[in-house]
Structure formats: structure tokens, C-alpha cells
Amino acid sequence: MTFLFTVSPDFAPDRLSGWYIFNTWLQKQTDSAIHLEMYNHYQQLHQAIEADKIDLIYANPYDAAMLVRNKGFLPLVKAQGQADEAIVAVHADSPAQDVADLQVNSRVAFTDDPDVRLMGMIMLEPADLDVGNIVPVLADSHVLVAKHLLKGEADAGIILAEAYDNLSGVIRKQLRVLVRSQISVIHHSLMVGPRLQARRGELRQVLLNMAADEKGGGVLAALGFSGWQAVDDEEMEFMIDLMDTLNT
Amino acid sequence: MISDMKPEDIVGDYREAELAFYDGSRRKVLYTELETPYPDGKLIVSTTTPEGVIRQVNRAFVEMSGYSEAELIGAPHNILRHPDMPAAAFKDLWETVLRGEKWQGYVKNLRKDGGYYWVKATVIPNVRGGKVVGYTSVRRKPSRTKVDECAKLYPTLR
Ligand SMILES: Cc1cc2nc3c(=O)[nH]c(=O)nc-3n(C[C@H](O)[C@H](O)[C@H](O)COP(=O)(O)O)c2cc1C
């Protein structure tokens, strides 16, 4: 049997080869056939999840909730010391100095990444902005969110903090961050679906040993991670509860 | 049981009030007009037992409340109860979460130093294996307009 592995479409494009190397490493370590399938958009990913095609997934917190509650997935590990955060940025010349300066009917650019959008919209609440009174500007990537700001096509943009930090200095100089989230407890997780659950303990051990493994360290570096850390059921439940409270 | 507030902990001029809690206990609180603004981008997170006793707090909770983590863990959540908050708000909170639903509202909280801070709070029941094992509350920065509305409305509900 070949298992299907996928990664939430919000991964950084320069990590694409890293995920393929990771998959090759994992197949060797576990002596299993695992096929890595990348989806470009959440819509395609969600169709695959709905059709019960996925066995292993590096999922964002938003999808993790649905995967656990509706699809019987269980958490394995998360990237050591990493958390998902978002920023709200404006053009450097924007008159807005504070989120509260943003007006009703502001054009707000974001991608279809549900976590980042959720965190961003929460940070817009102090300005009395919500999905009902902004003009959404949907962008295909975080870089394009930045471009909408630079071209004056959006008044504010919501970007994954890590993606913002990786934008070129030239672009960042022309932008200004109004607010950066400091939530710390929301993170991506590597999770197993029902068909792989009998091997959960084995998979987790392989991953936890990865940083110490001769080849594993280099594979992790290609992903931008220093190692994996176990996520237990209660930590995952807590994060789901947290996403639930935010999603109101 | 939580102890009365002590004058030596208070910063600035204060007034006194005696609060009567749902469990029958009472507490003398000292409160000032000093507002601590809610920090941008942060969330205050806590979890409680089904009875409302604090089990877990994050760093933002400690910073904003002015209490140490050790003082908070094991204390009832009404350690933050401000005399300006109408009892009806918390009655509604508990009735809502006991029905298994999410509660959301604007809350003025009392700091250990007598000052206050406004939050937009969401409380949800933590369901594990079909049973409520506690509650989680997440507070975020509220809009000034909403805070101003509540600051006007709440005294009329007390
Ligand atoms: C998860 C959770 C969080 C709460 N957070 C607060 C809070 O921040 N401030 C507050 O005054 N009461 C909070 N409460 C409500 C208190 O438990 C309590 O009902 C309230 O302070 C009024 O006190 P009383 O019910 O003893 O009269 C919270 C309750 C729960 C379950």
C-alpha cells in the first residue's frame, strides 16, 4: 500500500525541494511507500481530505482542527520552537500609524490561508473592522499581498509573519508593520490519518530521532527546522479549542 | 477564597468596594481609575476547571493582571472581578457555557495594583470524550467604540 503525504499549501516556495527530500528520507526510515502530493490551493487540499485520500499531512492549525474532529487524525510532531504568527502591514507612506486608524471599507489584501486570515482579522477588530465592512483583495501568495500594498491596490495587508520576514529588504523598506501577533501557541503539526494510525508510535520515534540521525539533520535544515518535538493529544485539543474561540 | 486587596499593592488613589461572589464568599477590593491599555497583537489565554478555578495562564495573562502565576493558579477566576462589571454579565456567561455554547463579551478586569484593563473575551467549554472537563477563555484587544459603549451601559445594569 502506498500512503499519501501532503503539506499545507502555505509552505515557503523555497522549501518545496526540502519536502521531497524529507519524504525520501521518511520512506527509507520507515520502509514504506509514501507518495508526496503537493496541492497549490486549499480548495484542492480540502477536496482530497474530504475524499479520505490523505494519510500523513503537515497541516496548519485551522485544518488540524477539522482533521482531528471530523477525520480522525492524530498529531505526531511540530517543528521545534516554531509558531504561526501574522502581521498587518501598510504602505510605508500610508497615513495609518495604528490599526485603529484604518477606516471602514479599507481594502484588505490576504491569501486564502485561513489561519493567517483569522489572526489578521482579529488584529483589525480594534479598528471596528470585520469581514462585513472591509473590501477583501484576495492574493495568490504573501508576496502578492505585499505587491498589492506597493501598487496602492490595498490599504492594508495580512501576511504570515515568517513570510513577511523573508520578503526582500527592498520590499520591506516600502512597507510598515502596524501590528505583529504574539500568540506563541498556534503552530503547524505533522499528523497521521486513520490508515497509518497503527504506526503512530513508530513514526513519531523516527521523527524525534531525526535531528540526531546522520542524514536527518541535513534534511531538517532543508526544511528550515532544527528538529521535531512531540505534540500530544491534549496539546492538540487545546490548540483546537483556541482556534474555536478565535473563530467567533 | 481569595484574600482582600492590600493598600500596599495599590498604585495611586483608590476607592473601596465589597464584592459578594456567587459561592457566598466576599472580598474587599481597592480600585483606581488607571487603565492599562491592551497590548497590540497579544492574546490573554486561561483555562479553568468546570467550577471556574484557574488551571493555566499564559504570560500575557500574568503581565496584564499584575499577579504572579503562582497567585493565579488555583484561584477562582473572580480574582479579576471589577466592581463596575454587572453581575448579569457573568450570570449570562455561566448559563451560556453550561449549555455547551460559546460566550463572548466585553469585560473590565481588575488588576492586582487596583488598575483595570478592558478585553473582548470568548469563553468555550473544553469537551473531551463528550464530557466538559473545563473552560478556555481567550481575550483580545477590543475596539474603543465598543469599550466606550460598555463603559456607559454597564453602570446602568448594576
Ligand atoms: C474560562 C473563564 C474565564 C473567566 N474570565 C473572567 C475574567 O476575566 N474576569 C472576570 O471578572 N470573570 C471571569 N470569569 C467569570 C468568573 O468565574 C466569575 O463568574 C465572575 O468573576 C463573577 O464572580 P461570581 O460568579 O463569583 O459572582 C471567567 C469564567 C470562566 C469560566
- State which percent range the strand residues of chain B make up: 25-35%
The share of residues in helices of chain B is 10-25%
**Which structural class fits the helix and strand makeup of chain B?**
alpha+beta
**Outline type of chain B:** globular
Give the tally of β-strands of chain B: 7
Following the backbone from N to C, one meets helices and strands of chain B in this order, namely EEEEHHHEEEH
CATH-defined superfamily of chain B: PAS domain
Strand content of chain A: 15-25%
Helix tally of chain A? 10
Helix content of chain A: 25-40%
- The low-pLDDT segments of chain A are none
Question: Which H/E pattern describes the elements of chain A?
Answer: EHEHEHEEEHEHEHHEEHHEH
Mean pLDDT reading of chain A: 95
The rough form of chain A would be described as globular
The helix count of chain B comes to: 4
Distance between termini of chain A? 41 Å
Cross-sheet strand order for the largest sheet of chain B: 4-3-7-6-5
Sum up the structure in keywords.
heterodimer; A: 248 residues; alpha/beta; 6-stranded mixed beta sheet; B: 158 residues; alpha+beta; Beta-Lactamase; 5-stranded antiparallel beta sheet; 4 helices; binds flavin mononucleotide; PAS-like_dom_sf (chain B); PAS_fold_3 (chain B); PAS (chain B); Diguanylate cyclase (chain B)
